[in-house]
Amino acid sequence: MGVASHSYHWMKTGFRPAKSRISRWRVEANRIIKRCESLKKMTDDRLERYSLELRWRAKSGEPLKKILPEAYALARESAWRTLKMEHFPVQLMGGMALFEGGIAEMQTGEGKTLTAVLPAYLRALMGKGCHVITVNDYLAQRDAEIMSPVFNKLGLSVGTITSDLEDEDRRTAYACDITYGTANEMGFDFLRDRIRIGASAPGQLEQAISNHKTSGKEPLVQRGNYFALIDEADSVLIDEARTPLIIGLIQPNDAASVNLFRWSNRATHRLESEEDFVYEPKKRSAYLTDQGCRKVLLMPKPSLLDSIDTERIYKQVEQSLVARFGFLKDRDYVVVDEEVVIVDESTGRMMDGRKWQDGLHQSIEAQEHVPVTASTGQAARITVQSFFQNYSHLAGMTGTAALAEKEIRKTYKVSVTSVPTHRPCLRIGDPPRLFKTVQAKRMAVVEEIERIRLKRCPVLVGTPSVEASETLGDLLAMKAIPHQILNAKYHEQEAAIVKKAGEPSRVTIATNMAGRGTDILLTDEVRENGGLHVIATEMHTSARIDRQLIGRSARQGDPGQYQFFLSLEDELLRCLETHQLERIIESAKADENGELAPSWISFFNNTQSFLEKLHRKQRRDMLKQEKHRIEMFHKMGLDPYLEWTE
């Protein structure tokens, strides 16, 4: 689906499911709202006792499906008493879709955080724990803080898992009825518990856990995997699925290894592309030619490298080439306090504690002239797909699931259901504008920002990287245009920046940090002037990421507009061969402002589609490998998530 057809495709078709299912949920939602009337007269103490009664019934074996109307009515009334927020009928319908299993597609701004309270409360009545999973620590803490009063009034406890917690605090958080956290943190806790349990065949896992509890050893952190409710489900289940969760074994670098990383980085600058090596941008891989191998072999080397075999030297030079040509500072990573920190493409956030494998991270450290950290082996690993298959019940919600419906259904064996919006969507999409050079594009973006500010409307400018956000910020500063930048470097100011982003004439430049889970509240003046304007300065590798950014405007019936500004020097096109892209740019005919004909949009759409297919294939291949690996470990009677050696 291309940029040019976004507005029509989303607003007209809506990816409607079977009418019968929606009709059934709508009728039940109206019944729940009527049931809420009888709860208005209850005191807070009586409301909590009623909740305890429901918990007793659930634990006594009464089907949760039968308890659902009462539970949802209770949760709705509690939300009103604590937050002055009542679930709309479509939110109750979304809650039913989530309880019945699968992914609920709810458009951006439809109140997914409040909707999540419904199935989370109902499943938590079983006393087995409910995990509400978000895409980052910020959203986990924010959602838990906002929604805790709703659960507390009904007698349930709430915990939050963040990256800075110690094990004892994690146990306390998991012991709560509802626990908020990220897939990464919960997945790593799952792996660490498997390491604590030790070797066990899959069929003997329950016995191994029981033996561990009575052994006097360090207790497990998690108490089980009963129910997972995933916010921004497509980001977690699809975008993060190409990166397995790996717990590393620290392998301290000796002096020879550090020398190898640094020497290999220098060696890449003495090699000629195509003659000595071939870099494949689509695969982000590099290999030395025969001539390149000979050149590397004959290069002067420190004496410390005499102890390292030639094959390892070749492989490390190839990794250094990948680091040099495939990974860009302030796009793929940032350097903070002399440390290389990975930046997640789909969320724009720093991934503290994560490292690239097989010497790639150390290659980038050598390239950036910062201390080279210890290499890591593997103690345990799990893919996102395998992790969520350990839950007895799985549900998720997002505004962009339908674009990945086929893959979600095939991989996770769950359906995708589209929930109607509470109010009609008023989002207006302007035709994309295309330019030959990135500089021409940026100047046009600055002019557009100036035009929108004169209308007293706020502008949210989406950029693909930290570098791009700061470059555009410099251009605005030259024009004396006030603005705020939200990227991985300024994550601590996120809440304050977002809070003001909906004010008249406010300009916010953001990476994908402002794409998911961000509510930009508008003033009455802004609504009257046309709402929030979103300018997308590039297309991402997935149309779903683009759609998340666009979805910041025109939320909950508010007006809003969006427009794409693209150039032939955009990062999206770096997947193409250099010589191929250079020929395309050279042949492009632009006007005096560097602007191209509208027909060029098909080139961008086709490139994005190519990358989406490539990434789908990579996820599919990884899933096949994982299945084979698990089957092999099962046959040997070993835990498939632990790394085994002879």
Automatic annotation (TrEMBL):
UniProt KW Protein transport keyword: yes
What SUPFAM superfamilies does the record point to?
A: P-loop containing nucleoside triphosphate hydrolases, Pre-protein crosslinking domain of SecA
Instruction: Return the Gene3D superfamilies for the record.
Output: P-loop containing nucleotide triphosphate hydrolases, SecA, preprotein cross-linking domain
Q: What sort of enzyme, by top EC class, is this?
A: translocase
Matching entries from PROSITE patterns are given as: HELICASE_ATP_BIND_1 (PS51192), HELICASE_CTER (PS51194), SECA (PS01312), SECA_MOTOR_DEAD (PS51196)
Q: Where is the Helicase ATP-binding domain?
A: 93-249
Gene Ontology terms for molecular function: ATP binding; protein-exporting ATPase activity
Which residue spans traverse the membrane?
none
What EC number(s) are associated with this protein in UniProt? 7.4.2.8
Positions binding ATP in this chain are 91, 109-113, 519
- Catalytic activities: ATP + H2O + cellular proteinSide 1 = ADP + phosphate + cellular proteinSide 2
Q: Where in the cell is it found?
A: Cell membrane; Cytoplasm
Q: What does this protein do?
A: Part of the Sec protein translocase complex. Interacts with the SecYEG preprotein conducting channel. Has a central role in coupling the hydrolysis of ATP to the transfer of proteins into and across the cell membrane, serving as an ATP-driven molecular motor driving the stepwise translocation of polypeptide chains across the membrane.
Q: What is this protein called?
A: Protein translocase subunit SecA
Q: Which organism is it from?
A: Gimesia aquarii
